[in-house]
Amino acid sequence: MGRERVTRGPDHAVIIAGAGTRLWPWTGPGLPKPLLPLGGGGRTLLAAVLDRLAGLVPPDAVALQAPRRSARASRPPSRAWRGAPSSGNERARHGPAIALAMRRLLAAAPEAVVAVLPADQRVADEPAFRAALAAAAETARGGALVTLGVVPDHASTRFGYIEAGGPLGGGSARGVARFVEKPDRATAERFLAGGRHLWNAGSSSGAPTRSGARWNAPPRAGRPIARVVDGDAAAWEAAPRTSIDYALMERTEGVAVVPLDAGWDDVGGWDAVIRLAHAGTPGRRASCRRRVRRRTARS
Question: Mean pLDDT throughout 82-105?
Fold first, then answer.
C-alpha cells in the first residue's frame, strides 16, 4: 500500500497476549510467546509492538491484557511501558479479553478510539504499520469498527480472510463485504488472484461506547464481564470462550478494513521461527538457536 501521512493515532491501545502454545516447548507460563526474541533487532515480539506504538499512542494509555500466569512474566523492560496486566485466566480467549478491556475503559474514556493489537506478531515495515493504524483510528473516529487486513503474498489456508468492498472516503479504508473462514487451497488461490481478499490480522480499532456495547449485547456475554469489572473475579469462568471476530466483527454492520502491507508475520509455528532466524544476522541466528536448545532441554 502507499504511504499515508501519520497524523493522529488511537487514544488508547490494548495489547492482547496469549500463551503461544503452538511454539511449545520453547514457550510456556514462564516464557509466553510475546517474550520470544523474534521482534527484529534483538527485541522481543512484545517490545517490538511497544516500539511501533511509540509516538502514536501515549505511553500511559497502553495496557496489556494477558492470562494470569503469563501476565507477570510479560512486563516488558521498556521505558515505553506504563500499563498493568489484568487478572485474566489461562483459558481466556480474545473475545472476552477484549470485551473486558473495553468495559474497563468505558468510565474513563467512553469516546476514545482504542486499538486492540496482538502481542505476538512480527512486522518488518514499521512505518507502514503505523500509517495503517493511524488510518484505522481516523476511520474509527467516524463511528466505524475497523480491522486491519494483511495484503496476502501467497495463497494461505492458515488464515481467515476479509473480502474488501468499496472505498470509504478519501483514505485507504474500505468497507467489509464479508468475513471468510480459512479456505481450501483452490479457494485461497482464487482469493489471491482476485485481489479483493485480505488476511485477517486480528487487529482492530473502535470506541468503548460503541464496540463494548455491541459486544456485550447478549446477556450471556455481558453479565459475566460486568461482574468481573465490579470485582467478582470468579465470574470470568462464565464468560463465553469465543473470538472477537465471531462475537463482534462478523455480527456488526458497517465494519471497515484498512489494508496492511508491512511484512506481517503471525509467527504461528516453528516454520516461522526458522524463517525469521535465517533472516537475521549470523550472531542473532546463533543466539536464537542457543535459546531454543536451552528451553527444549529443560522440557
Answer: 60
